[in-house]
Amino acid sequence: MGNGDLESWGSTKNRGAPPAAPPPTSHYASSSAYDAESSNKQWTSWLVPMIVVANVAMFFVVMIVNDCPKNHNSSLEGDCVAKFLGRLSFQPLKENPLFGPSSSTLEKLGALEWSKVVNGHQAWRLVSCIWLHAGVVHILANMLSLVFIGIRLEQQFGFVRVGVLYMLAGIGGSTLSALFITTNISVGASGALFGLLGAMLSELLTNWTIYANKAAALFTLVIIILVNLAVGMLPHVDNFAHIGGFLTGFLLGFVLLIRPQFSWQECRNLPADVRSKSKYTVYQYVFWIVSMILLIVGFTVGLVMLFKGENGNDHCSWCHYLSCVPTSKWRCDNR
Questions:
Q1: If DSSP codes are grouped into helix, strand and coil, which group holds residue 279?
Q2: Sequence-ordered list of residues with C-beta below 8 angstroms from that of 143, at least 6 positions apart, any chain
Q3: Phi, psi (5° rounding) for residue 262?
């Protein structure tokens, strides 16, 4: 692990650049031929708010453990920020510009670190790092994105499927991150958030026939994804967690968010007061099977490589550019 300061100073990878808000829901408005009763059915969203509460509560715990006034040497790095908060005060901005704890506190409480996962057999860090954040700015951005993206998905598909998506996408992001970033620690929920964003894309594709304005929705969603992944290529941002979470969520969307489709030819031939029976299509079954195979193979290969202590950069010499592109203004240290 690097010995630098928090975030961009070498020891903590911020899973920053959380996904932007999804396209307006009007882009996903049901077609007039879609069954009104089915399209209007919504679950009450409670899991996403609970995840937000859990993340905020965990951040308070981290700050209490951090206890900057007691554990920080002000003569070396400067005074703690907002000292009137007592134990909740933040590390000096030179150490952590996101108004948060020290990297050593995050490491102690479960940040993702390659050496501890591989050599210390602490696989639980693949999960715990999802619930940690590097600062107020970090957690605020992630939780706002989670509210915008997650509540809509939970209302449409229920808490079970969204919960599974969130956790598996987070673990997928952590796994890819640990494979390629072996010298820094990483924290944040952005991998899980990118998983929800990827699931939105695959849900649109697999349920293509039931949506109106689908071309506009697809274009908007792709632009949002590309912009966020591009921002993740800036230094000190763990874009591997973003990519791993996105790919996991994209594949899970084909598996978990599939909807029965209507036979439009039958709809046109039936009287107006008679409903057409919905059904799954061949391409939906193909997407489901292929996605399940890729998920099983991907997780198996990734976890086997990780626990064997392999470095993903040894198998892909250019992959580190996916997380940071060096320029004359900054250097990258993603390996």
A1: strand
A2: 52, 55, 56
A3: -95, 150
Cβ-contact 187, 15 below 8 angstroms = yes
Catalytically active residues are 190, 242
Q: Directed axis angle between helix 239-256 and helix 190-206, to 10°?
A: 40
**pTM of this prediction?**
0.83
Backbone angles phi, psi at 67, to 5 degrees: 45, 65
CB atoms within 10 A of CB 48: 24
Tens digits of residue pLDDT in 119-174: 999 999 999 999 999 999 999 999 999 999 999 999 999 999 999 999 999 999 99
The Cα-based distances of 115 to 1, 81, 111, 169, 333 in angstroms read: 8, 31, 11, 22, 16
Q: How many of the other CB atoms lie within 10 Å of CB of 316?
A: 13
Amino acid (1-letter code) at residue 316: C
Q: What are phi and psi of 27, to 5 degrees?
A: -65, -20
CB 177 within 8 A of CB 232: no
d(CA 138, CA 133): 6
Query: Starting at the edge strand that comes first in sequence, how are the strands of the sheet with 112-113 ordered?
Result: 12-14, 185-187, 112-113
Taking the alpha carbons of 38, 40, 41, 47 in that order, is the dihedral positive or negative? positive
For residue 45, what are its two tokens? 């969203």
Q: Which residue has 């950069």 as its token pair?
A: 313
The span from the CA of 241 to the CA of 192, in Å, is: 9
Alpha-carbon span 188 to 158, nearest angstrom: 24
Cα distances (angstroms) measured from residue 167 to each of 51, 146, 257: 11, 13, 15
Tens of pLDDT along 11-45? 566 666 556 544 433 333 333 333 433 444 789 99
Structure tokens at 232: 């993740």
Helix 239-256 with 159-180: angle, nearest 10 deg: 150
Residue 292, C-beta contacts closer than 8 angstroms, at least 6 positions apart = 255
3-class state of residue 186 by DSSP: strand
